[in-house]
Amino acid sequence: MKKEIRTVSETVKAIKDGAASPDGACRSFLSRAGNDTLGAFITLTPEEAYRGAVSVEERLKNGEDLPLAGVPVAVKDNICVAGVRCTCASRMLGNYVPAYSATVWERLERAGAVLVGKTNLDEFAMGSSGETSFFGGVRNPYDRSRVAGGSSGGSAAAVAAGCAAASLGSDTGGSSRLPASFCGIVALKPTYGTVSRFGLVSFAPSLEQICPMTLTVEDTELIYRVISGADPRDMTSVDPAPAEGKQISRMNIALWSPPGVTEDVTGALRDAAGMLEASGAHVTGIDSFFDPAEAAAVYIAVSSAEASSTLSRYDGIRYGFSAGTPSRTRGEGFGEGVKDRLVTGAYVLTEDGGSLYGRALSHRARLVALAEEVTSRYDVILMPAARSAAHRPGDGAGPAEDGFSDISNLSGTPSLTVPVKLNGDGLPVGVGLLAARFREAVLFAAGRAIERARGAFPHPSGEVE
Ligand code: GLN
Q1: Nearest alpha carbon, ligand 1 atom 10
Q2: Class for the domain spanning 8-244
């Protein structure tokens, strides 16, 4: 049987070699996306995709060098693409059609990517399970009775199920890395600022980044290379450091295998440490790093405070849903989870709560110092990406689920999730890799070493390529 094209690098190679046309590659991904019963998409964009494929074909004929020629990409529905509705999975923006595209999408399109559709998420990216979308929840491609994780659940499910070769997620406190772990794919939360946030609908600007989500580390690297780099339209953006690779045999890796996670996760950490060691890395166990409960509490205070300001623009006057008055608009336009966050954020910022926000900031500073100190001593920290494999709807731990991933958002450090194994129930389990700011190259090298030692990861349908 002819091997199906699934990854970014396979697509680029097949098109370069003439084994597939952009139109043909696009068709096979789109047909899977068209049959999506996981709830991965809010909007499918076959017309944009075919139009994109035709333009890629022409640009290739004109001799343009396109690093992502004909690569089908799905974009989280809180990232703007001009002319395509962008709902944030909320009634509030159910009919909002942006007039401009996010910088990341402009860069992907320039590199030859085509748009498959906009993916489902927890409303306004607030959530860890992918269940709170106004349009219905996302199911896990490995087991439909489980969640895909959140908030970028649609982006993770779409890639795992072969509906797109890559997707974009966003990550404020783990929203790309946690669903990647639940769905058996790779995700990078880049160093803060290295990817422009222009065109990302804001939730908590001091924490969030747009993230590549793909089947392989190589693909994540390809997408990161295209979307990263300073952007005059985002004043917090900076260029990534020139790739300073390091041989795996020269790496010092810390293994942090904390309590409070399932046996599966502990096992995946042990396996990944063994794989890194077998590749020549020096792995040392560390007993303590930070308290995930503290990180989660700081995250909730800071992100909710920021959300109460960024979401104040939805008043029904300028755009989006309107129910007459601003308070009715907000009462009816936002779901319960979002309203809870806004109440929390407003309280944290009141005079009574003011000391709370101040305290959260000083805890944040302490966690930043800790992350900087530990990541300066080791090339990579190998740690949990999530507490468990995918759970059933309703069984999640809420925002506390992200205690392990929050540290990288609070401190701006990069973090990569890599799938390691399937557990006894056939569900994927990933691990997290954390490094000092601007050291993505080291994360990629460690991630590739895990992949090489692990071998091909089984697709949801059970086949292994
Ligand atoms: N799960 C966290 C929350 O509920 C993080 C969300 C995110 O990273 N966007 O806010």
Answers
A1: 126
A2: alpha beta
